[in-house]
Amino acid sequence: MRRPRSQGRNPVIPQSGPFAVVRRAGRALVEIFQGDVVSVAELADIPIGAGPGPSTLALVPYRQVVERGFECVDDGAPLECLRISSTAEIALDELLAELPADPPVLRDGAFDIDDDGYAALVGEVLSEEIGRGEGSNFVIHRVFEASVDGDPVRAALAAFARLLRNERGAYWTFCVHTGTRTLVGATPERHVSVEDGLVMMNPISGTFRHGSGFSETDLLAFLTDQKEIDELYMVLDEELKMMAVVAEGGGQVIGPQLAEMAHLCHTEYLLAGRTTLDVRAVLRETMFAPTVVGSPIENACRVVARHERRGRGYYGAVLALLGHDDAGRQTLDAPILIRTAELSPSGHLRIPVGATLVRHSTADGEVAETHAKAAGIMRAFQGSAPPAVPVEINSDRVRAALAARNRHLARFWLDQRPADPASGARVLIVDAEDTFTGMLAHLFRALGLAVERVSVAAAVGLDLDGYDLVVAGPGPGDPRSRGDARVDGLRTLARQRLASGRPLLGVCLGHQLVSGLLGLPLHRKDGTYQGTQREIDFFGRPERVGFYSTFLAVDADGPVDPTIEVSRDPVTREVYAMRGTGFASVQFHPESVLTEHGVDLLGELLDHLGIGAARLV
Q1: Of residues 589, 596, 597, 608, which has the active-site annotation?
Q2: Partner residues linked to 258 by β-bridges
Q3: What are the backbone angles phi and psi of residue 461, rounded to the nearest 5°?
Q4: Does the reported pTM lie above 0.70?
Q5: 589 is annotated as an active-site residue
Q6: What pLDDT is attached to residue 386?
Q7: 508 is catalytic
């Protein structure tokens, strides 16, 4: 092949050795990286050079979630790092002229789990996990497998050329060869990036398949479909949890907007905040996107391992390009590894795809979803399909439908906020394996309180009297259970705090445990409240709040203690909030983006508990 020219350089289309060819959104030129590959054990071991520009491209496998203490089926997929020794840029048309044009030949293609088996798996997760309160959504994957004739690297480059020609709207379009594997794909989703101290995440959910065109009516029906809306809200909340850890002051929500690709559209938000963390720590604290795992993340990892029963390789994890800018600040750009094919040196092709299961899901619908997602990357291996015709997605009615999604969301997360004010009363938040507690901490800090957040196990040995307020936080599971160390531990802490008469606040699981200690019966709902916004009576006035629950306390015969105020449903008698001497509790999540006035409601509960709180202006 000839050596293409670009901006006075002479980049070489790689012929051997490790390489990566990447077209990133917002960049006019395609980047070519070459170097050597090393494997490291942990994200903190990823090498990052001192000079300006990209220094390492890391292939992060899904199994790295063990660094956060999360469960997975360990398939041994290595954390491979391309240490970049040569960087070049080339115009797209020049690159396309160098890439193979003939399509690879695929043989013996089939999903590793057939449609009936996958449908049964979907049904199991809906009934046994979401229905049992283990989380609000879970992503279960299957893999299309085939054999590729000829050189697999050439086949990957040929597929890469088709993606460059026929796909649009991708965040990254790439072909990466490490010597042990070749990855090629067009992923729509940024997972996390850091540039100039600004950390950004990009939750995407909802898929509208339009082919070569569609009617505005079809698109509006998609934008107002409650399943699609709820699905996006849930991943928005889950990624806000991550931003609450890696960004000072948490993240600001921008959007939503439509992200259009060649044959489909997604709805997406952008989250942004400031960070001073090492970019490898940012990467670690955001493993991995709820759009490819589920929420809450820690228990979602358990559910995925329990039902998939095999490793994921690189599916749902990330590529991560690390380096420094001209001012010496660390940079990170990490797309999610979806819409991606992996080829082995022997020519074995794998295309992993997953469906997000929520309470509205149907088995047939999720089977169809996986076929549609696999088809997008398969087209690149099966010949030159014509590019889709651009379609209009920015009409006034479409923009109005998108804007309507924010009408009743929490302005706390949608608006820019000043830095957290000076600390006041001491708050201990006990995290029962749901990092909603990170978002809750930002609400408390915004109200002027000093916050410490610990696990249930860590809280057991603390002197609770040293805190002005103890928060029994949210978490997955059955509040009626005995023998679960996490639930038992949180129940014991709540009992001790109630007995002391010192201020206690229960949230979600914490509320359920407080309710049980006060003698209220706990029931599992027939239909879950996972990722649901409802209008309730909050001690005499209507409020829109967000629920993530399967179990509820029921006040069937009036409160056990007549001095306790109870906010309940007038028909079902489901208890939404309580307040009494020295305690308050809420079934909903005041910190959720779905709770419209969450910070104000939290301030009122603090007033009830006699804890002074700043008032946001």
Answers
A1: 589
A2: 267
A3: -90, 5
A4: yes
A5: yes
A6: 52
A7: yes
